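User: I'm writing a short report section on ligand binding and want a predicted complex to refer to. Could you take this sequence and zinc ion and write out the structure as tokens? A short remark afterwards would be nice.
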Amino acid sequence: MKDYYEVLGVTRSASQEEIKRAYRQLARQHHPDVSVEGDDMGARFKEINEAYEILSDPERRRRYDLFGEEGPAASLFDRGFEGFSSPFGDIFNLFFGRGQTRTSRAPQRGRDLLYTLEITLQEAFEGTVRSIEIPRNDVCSACGGTGLEKGYEHDLCPDCGGEGMSTRTRRSNLGSFTSTVSCQRCGGSGEINTHPCPDCEGRGSRRIIDELEVSIPAGVDDGDRMRITGRGEAGHRGGAQGDLYVEVRVSEHDTFSRHGSDLHALVSVDISEAALGTDIEIPTLNGEERLHIPAGSQPGDVFKLRGKGMPEVHARSKGDLFLTLEVKVPRKLNAEQKRLLKEYQRIESQKKDAPGMIERLRKAMRTS
Ligand SMILES: [Zn+2]
Ligand SMILES: [Zn+2]
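Assistant: Sure. The structure tokens for the complex follow:
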């Protein structure tokens, strides 16, 4: 039997760092590409790699320390393999419970379910109650989930004698592999049902359409999930029922966009309204509101209506409503409007010539 510690030239108490260092040095010396002696050196390189592979992995090193060299099967099919028969395979099975695929007879909780519920922003604002239908498995009321006819119990599986497993041995040029698989007849539980419940045919559950009312609290946001305990899939062997999760999707609104509990929207006025100021009616999710646009408002000005945003779930506070001003330029003008705007334009251009005049006026004021 090879001594991997000897191969790497380290002591049995060598640290991972020491092992790594020793390996690097040896690998450099014995790499087939740098060696001139051919095959022999190749074999030595392989040995070094093998030793490093085992000793650099704490779990494999521990096993090696306990049981000695691992067989080739072990190093090739280490992780995830059902079980192996190196000289020590059976011992591994014994000590580490490898290949245990037996299905537990313990109660198993049912799966959780996810239901996606789409609501409008208005519904999210007000809160709503929706009835939904969930197709799912429910515990059979006749047998209470055992799947057995009244007065009967499970029998031991005759195929596996209640072990729930069967062992298969395969031979290959790498050695023989023993794998342990679940018993086909009982599915690994070790027991069979010879008197199934007539209501559920032994399944322990029935397919139902569960109708329930979900109450959606005001302020709910897109992606929020609510848990409804015990309305998921039925458990197995008397295990608890899973839970139902209702995930809320809030659809987009034509007018408002939402950022947390704040709402944003655009309001439009025409040029004269922006210049002269006005009061306008604006829609909110809670009815019409009056908004004062002061004279001289500019496109892009933002008005904040405190507390007119979304409510927060289970809180009294509310977000704000932000309104961004849009100023519409008329596409068409009638003769009267055109005349007035031209007049406006004329006054504006006079104003542009004004600085000279104003300068003169200022001077006059200073000297007086
Ligand atoms: Zn069986
Ligand atoms: Zn039943």
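A remark for your report: The first helix runs from residue 4 to 8. The pocket of zinc ion (ligand 2) is lined by residues 140, 142-143, 147, 197, 199-200, 204 (CB under 6 Å).
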